[in-house]
Design goal:
Blueprint (H helix, E strand, L loop, with lengths): L2 H17 L10 E5 L20 E7 L4 E5 L5 E5 L3 E3 L1
Antiparallel strand pairs: 1-2, 1-5, 2-3, 3-4
C-alpha cells in the first residue's frame, strides 16, 4: 500500500467517524454476506448500496433493524439485518 492510499483510507475513516458520530477505533466485529436472493438497492443518505452476494465488514450492531457496515470500497453505511447472512 502506498503512502497516498494510506492517507486516503485515514481520511475516509475520519469522515466516517464524523458522519456517524462514531468514537474510538474502527474494529471489524465479523464479516457477513448480503443475501444473494435480495434485490439490489442503491445507497442513499447513510445507507450502504446493496449488491447480491457482497461480503461486508460489520463495524457495529446498532439496533434490531440495522447494522453499520463497510464494503470493499471502504464506504460505510447502514444495512438492514434482514438481508444479511452469516458466513
Amino acid at each position: 500500500m502506498t503512502l497516498k492510499d494510506c492517507k486516503k483510507e485515514e481520511k475516509a475513516d475520519r469522515e466516517f467517524q464524523k458522519r456517524f458520530k462514531f468514537e474510538g477505533n474502527i474494529n471489524v466485529l465479523t464479516r457477513m454476506m448480503v443475501d444473494p436472493a435480495v434485490t439490489e438497492r442503491k445507497g442513499g443518505g447513510k445507507n450502504l448500496p446493496l449488491r447480491r452476494g457482497e461480503i461486508l465488514d460489520v463495524i457495529q450492531f446498532t439496533n434490531q433493524e440495522q447494522i453499520l457496515c463497510r464494503n470493499s470500497r471502504r464506504r460505510y453505511g447502514y444495512v438492514p439485518r434482514a438481508v444479511m447472512l452469516h458466513l
